[in-house]
Amino acid sequence: MTISPDAADTAQPSGPAPLAYPFEQPPGLAQCPMYAHLRATEPVARVLMPSGDQAFLLTRYEDVRTALSDPRFSRAATLEPGAPRLAAAPQNFKSLLNMDPPEHTRVRKLVSREFTARRVAALRPRIQEHTDALLEAMAKQEPPVDLVPALAFQLPVTVICELLGVPFEDRDEFAAWSRVFLATTAVSKEEMLAAQLALRTYLANLVAAKREQPGDDLLSALVSIHDEDGDRLQEEELIFLGISLLVAGHETTVNQIANSVVALLTHPEQLQQLRRQPELINAAVEELLRLHPPGNEALLRITLEDVELSGVTIPRGSAVLPSLSSANRDVRQYDHPDTVDFDRPSNPHFAFSHGTHYCIGSGLARAELQIAIGSLIARFPTLRLAVAEEELRRPEGMLVHGIASLPVTW
């Protein structure tokens, strides 16, 4: 179907003027107060995206869960001609991220066959080994040390390179493309399109190399699946699947390590609790994911029919932005939602999304976060920020967000 980019606007001409999105981000880890305001007063709010298109921003837990799991909210429809988009440059390629069932089910099943819990469990000793080496190198430096390049960046990049079979020496190149790939307003439309092309060319060449000389890695396994039965995994799907795994496989974890460390260093009581009870590391990681996820919103959806949420009718063909970070702080779902609490009895947060598009790499991300954070606070018992929290800045105009630079001392 062809979707009018201003369908939502024409459907509610007398509604309030749309809010400019994204909202201004406070320093440090503080959440923009606009989200709490909207949860209380306008949980389904019209916003104007950087592309100039309009969307409905969802801020309450139940509405977000509906949008992430209800088939009336489509990812595939975002590829239709004229569909609303978030950024100025469209990402018009078919990947696991913008498929709907049954196509999504087919491709995800193939990836899940290789991206198994057993493979992740087998990686844990290597993750620990890499973490220990990075922390040892950090300890030899004169503080303050920027934790982002020292640990938060190096660890996830090293792990995803090993998992996928990507040359580690290419890390700076593909990381730069990834940052542009995930931009909304930080770079120009031309830079976005150039990064998309560069990543596609890079992965296509890497797929060709794996075909000639396969290894014991995930990308080689996916190439083998394609070559055995191209009907199950087409060449373009394979290439863009590789892009999705490479980009998402390190960018989100880079940001989450930094976010989590800042949260701990600015909450000394919880940090001391975790030092006294290191067995709480899994619960601590989940709580920090809930409070400070690496992205505010889930990927854009398009409604396939009229949908009512919180008393608002969202017309067919409308763009919808489910806010993961806002839903994670909804008092209707969580007691004292703005408090760091490692003893929560239940924590069904949306940091890894929900439903069909629940993050396939969540197990790997959790393993990296548990090992990195647990090892860091054990190795540096006097670790603390080297600057005031207010001096910490997040990169603006990005789909994911962390801390650009994180000076620490001990």
The CATH superfamily label reads Cytochrome P450
* Largest sheet composition: 6 strands, mixed
- Which residues sit in consecutive blocks of at least 5 with pLDDT less than 50? 1-14
For this structure, the CATH topology is Cytochrome p450
N-end to C-end Cα span:
58 Å
Shape: globular
CATH architecture: Orthogonal Bundle
Structure commentary:
This is Cytochrome P450. It holds the Pfam family p450. Belongs to the cytochrome P450 family. The chain has helices at residues 7-11, 33-41, 61-69, 103-114, 117-139, 147-152, 154-164, 171-181, 189-212, 218-228, 235-265, 268-276, 281-291, 324-327, 362-379, and strands spanning 19-20, 44-48, 54-58, 73-74, 145-146, 301-303, 307-309, 312-314, 319-322, 384-385, 407-409. By secondary structure, it is α+β, with helices and mostly antiparallel strands. The strands form 3 sheets. A 6-stranded mixed β-sheet has the order 1-2-3-9-6-4. Helix 5 runs parallel beside helix 15 and helix 11 (235-265) packs parallel to helix 15 (362-379). It is globular, with a radius of gyration of 21 Å. The protein starts with 6 loop residues before the first helix and ends with a strand.
